[in-house]
Design brief:
The complex is a heterodimer.
Chain A: H1 7-23, H2 26-33, H3 41-49, H4 68-80, H5 87-101, H6 104-116, E1 121-124, E2 140-144, E3 147-158, E4 165-171, E5 182-188, E6 194-200, E7 206-217, E8 222-223, H7 230-265, E9 267-268, E10 271-272, H8 277-303, H9 309-338, H10 349-361, H11 366-377
Parallel strand pairs in A: 1-4
Antiparallel strand pairs in A: 2-3, 3-7, 4-5, 5-8, 6-7, 9-10
Helix pairs in contact in A: 1-4, 4-7, 4-8, 5-6, 5-7, 7-8, 7-9, 7-10, 8-9, 9-10, 9-11
Chain B: H1 7-23, H2 26-34, H3 40-53, H4 71-83, H5 91-104, H6 107-118, E1 124-127, E2 143-147, E3 150-158, E4 168-174, E5 185-191, E6 197-203, E7 209-222, E8 226-227, H7 233-247, H8 251-267, E9 269-270, E10 273-274, H9 279-307, H10 315-337, H11 367-373, H12 384-395
Parallel strand pairs in B: 1-4
Antiparallel strand pairs in B: 2-3, 3-7, 4-5, 5-8, 6-7, 9-10
Helix pairs in contact in B: 1-4, 4-8, 5-6, 5-7, 7-10, 8-9, 8-10, 9-10, 10-11, 10-12
The chains are: A alpha+beta, B alpha+beta.
Keywords (chain B): FAD, Flavoprotein, Oxidoreductase
Family (chain B): Belongs to the acyl-CoA dehydrogenase family.
Protein name (chain B): Pimeloyl-CoA dehydrogenase large subunit
Chain lengths: 378, 398
């Protein structure tokens, strides 16, 4: 057993750390979050040049064959600076689905472009009624000639605005909550019949609600087996959850560092507030939550590489539930310990709080994952 | 001990209900229900309606324009206002400076300011906190130096809610630096239009503008605008904070939030069933509801003690701590109830001039803004940590 990083992994960590240090000061991030795009295409290019966008893909398609551990290293350090580029949406989710389910032609058409930084992706899975259930799909795909016609409403698609292609889950058969009958389609974002409502999210990112009205796609848009997409979706979403857990760990560590420093500097009653025992204990609780989260995040990254599916899914549910609770606690208490300063948009701590708040809800909140774990463990 | 309502009380309840049903403007109600900041225009319009009815200041003595309600009637009114999503009058005038003026002010001050508060002629804001003086309020540095019939005020206040709406600010200023901190503070009423006052917005984590910094540069304030004696301001300030803590529990509002959660839970789905059938959700909501009931009866018990002439010490701190914790748990659960639609968020400020509706279900518009803003509830009015210190010292003698 070993939780230490290899030399290569340490180099990767240093590289992401340096990128965040150079590009993600609180001011730079605030400015970027406020632009129309909400992130930087130059940064995206840099990420491609550094090889990050190809990290999790197999070497055969031009990737580096990295594991979930490499992904976690990157996400943790990006979480530290609240990086805004759509790495999770494009590489882990979109790219992950194509690499996992796509045929040779699809992989060749998409993955190298992603790795080069020329193509962005998004995954449209949620629907207004689905809450966090990946099998709850009402969007329909009916056979029409050689291809399919898609109709439905996809909710809160992160980076759905800037994606060149959207991976859409749609039902080719069965009832709205059946596990069978779900298929994946690659849809060009500018296809006729696709309308988007673009908006900002509380964490400073961008998302869209996407309406599909008689969107015609060819047979080559079907990703993987017709009706059999759920296991693939679950597998890739599990990886995204593990990545998100690592991001949360980075964000919690940064929030704790910022708060810790503030407690040393801020004086009231003639003494640094960090000298007050009640606040010291609070800070210790926040530190412990972040440490427990780091352990869960490392654990889940390692377990993702195992073949035992139940074990993998239990690890993901447990990690997300524990980290969701920790993220809320650390985020909320960071604001509290900052007092009024924590309430301002100008100061960085509120942005950590808001990202941690959304991480708790993305891909299922704490309650959802406790339920999932209970079902898997019984 | 008795919890039953008399026939008169029930008739009073019907009167309040009827009044709110017919007089509360729909736009004001909607903003209040969603938890959005009031607009100056809407709040003022509503307060003028309240004043016309004679209900602007239920807690004031009748001689100054109070309603003369019994403690039971005040309770009934608060309940009905909460249920109907009717805003209470903005606290800074009616609940904070008003009682200071009628308790410690002179006749001229009472005659001039109290009717103006009742009629919403002046929007008040509170000049307490400073960059270096938050929890340690008595360390405040804003100086007032006597110059003939004026004080000349220099310094800075911060976290001043609605200073950009305000006509008047009540301010704690230092008039003597040579004595113990608490003994050199005075309480001034300052016209916001006085030359030398600058208001600078602070954009909050909710991306809205409700907080401000207020700068004073050689601001001349007539000595007649001082409340009570020079250097006795700390006594008046503490009196005011005591009043603030009893109104901060917001039980009526929290009860309405519980109702809202129940309505939303019927519309949302979890695991293919209504969210209202989700046992995790039910547990959380029920725990809040029972805690809220305990808070409600604690508040009533304290009000009854006051009505029977008993002196409270730091008990109102308990209402502040429990009340704000419940408010935060409620907005947390509200945001959670929307699932993924908790994530979309745009400040109202950035919606100005657009006519598309906010994304997601209609009831999802508001709670996230309130959730973000209410992180301040455990900070403002004396942070909950400070409140616990007060209880520990004053009640428990530790």
């Amino acid at each position: 057993m070993d939780f230490e990083l290899s030399d290569e992994q340490n180099m990767l960590k240093d590289s992401v750390e340096r990128f965040v240090k150079d590009n993600y000061s609180a001011e730079a991030r605030a400015k970027l979050a406020d632009t129309e795009l909400g992130f930087s295409r130059d940064h995206w290019k840099t990420m491609a040049e550094l090889g990050w966008l190809g990290m999790p893909f197999p070497e055969e398609v031009g990737g580096f064959g990295g594991t979930a551990i490499e992904t976690a290293i990157m996400m943790e350090n990006m979480g530290n600076g609240l990086v805004l580029e759509p790495f999770l949406s494009t590489v882990i989710l979109g790219g992950g689905l194509v690499a996992e389910a796509g045929n040779e032609a699809q992989i060749e058409a998409i993955i190298p472009e992603v790795i080069e930084g020329n193509m962005m992706l998004a995954f449209a899975y949620a629907e207004p009624q689905s809450r966090f259930d990946l099998n709850d799909v009402e969007t329909s795909a009916s056979k029409s000639g050689d291809g399919y016609v898609l109709n439905g409403h996809k909710a809160v698609v992160y980076h759905g605005t800037t994606a060149d292609k959207i991976i859409v889950s749609a039902r080719t058969s069965g009832d709205s909550r059946d596990e069978n009958g779900i298929s994946l389609f690659v849809v060009d974002n500018n296809s006729s019949g696709v309308t988007r409502r673009d908006y900002r999210t509380i964490d400073g990112q961008r998302a869209a609600d996407i309406t599909l009205k008689d969107v015609k796609v060819g047979a080559d848009a079907l990703l993987g087996e017709e009706g059999g997409a759920l296991p693939v979706i679950e597998k890739v979403v599990d990886r995204a959850i593990a990545a998100l857990c690592a991001e949360a760990v980075g964000a919690m560590q940064a929030a704790n560092n910022i708060t810790n420093e503030y407690m040393k500097e801020r004086k009231q009653f003639g003494t640094p507030i960090g000298k007050f025992q009640v606040l010291q204990h609070r800070m210790v609780d926040m530190y412990m939550e972040a440490e427990q989260s780091k352990s869960m995040s490392d654990m889940v990254a390692m377990k993702l590489e195992l073949d035992d599916e139940t074990e993998r899914r239990k690890a993901v549910a447990a990690a997300k539930a524990q980290i969701g609770q920790a993220a809320k606690f650390v985020g909320e208490q960071s604001i509290q310990l900052h007092g009024g300063m924590g309430m301002t948009d100008e100061y960085s701590i509120g942005h950590y709080f808001k990202r941690l708040t959304t991480i708790e809800m993305l891909f299922g909140n704490t309650d959802h994952h406790f339920k999932k774990y209970a079902a898997l463990a019984s | 001990m008795d919890l039953t309502f008399s026939k008169e009380d029930l008739a009073f309840r019907d009167e309040v209900r009827e009044f709110l049903a017919t007089s509360l403007p729909a736009d004001v109600k909607d903003r209040c229900d969603r938890g959005l900041h009031p607009t100056k225009e809407g709040q003022t319009r509503w307060q003028k309606i309240l004043n016309e009815k004679g209900w602007m200041a239920p807690n004031w003595p009748v001689e100054y324009g109070g309603t003369g309600w019994t403690i039971t009637q005040k309770y009934i009114a608060a309940q009905e206002f909460g249920y109907a999503a009717a805003p209470v009058a903005t606290a800074f005038g009616v609940s904070m400076v008003g009682p200071v003026i009628y308790t410690f002010g002179n006749q001229e001050q009472k005659d001039y300011y109290l009717p103006r508060i009742l009629n919403s002629d002046d929007w008040w804001c509170q000049g307490y906190s400073e960059p270096g003086s938050g929890s340690d309020l008595a360390s405040l540095q804003t100086k007032a130096v006597r110059d003939g019939d004026d004080y000349i005020v220099n310094g800075q206040k911060i976290w001043t809610s609605y200073a950009h709406y305000a006509d008047m600010i009540f301010c704690l200023v230092r008039t003597d630096s040579s004595v113990k901190q608490q003994e050199g503070i005075s309480f001034l009423l300052i016209d916001m239009k006085t030359p030398g006052i600058t208001v600078k917005p602070i954009i909050g984590i909710d991306k809205e503008h409700s907080l401000n910094e207020v700068f004073f540069e050689d601001v001349r304030v007539p000595v007649v605008n001082r409340i009570g004696e020079e250097n006795k301001g700390w006594t008046y300030a503490k009196f005011l904070l005591g009043n603030e803590r009893t109104s901060i529990a917001r039980v009526g509002r929290s009860k309405r939030q519980v109702e809202r959660l129940k309505e939303i839970a019927k519309a949302e789905r979890s695991g293919g069933r209504p969210l209202s059938e989700d046992t995790d959700f039910i547990n959380k909501l029920t725990r809040i509801e029972v805690d809220l009931m305990a808070l409600e009866y604690t508040e009533l018990r304290m009000l009854s003690m006051i009505a029977n002439g008993k002196q409270l010490s730091a008990e109102p701190s308990l209402l502040k701590i429990k009340g704000t914790e419940i408010q935060q748990r409620l907005t947390n659960l509200l945001v959670e109830s929307f699932g993924m639609y908790g994530a979309p968020y745009e400040a109202e400020r950035s919606y100005a001039g657009r006519n598309e509706a906010p994304v997601g279900p209609d009831y999802a518009h508001g709670p996230m803004a309130e959730h973000l803003y209410l992180r301040a509830a455990t900070i403002y009015g004396g942070s909950n940590e400070i409140q616990r210190n007060i209880v520990s010292k004053m009640v428990l003698g530790l």
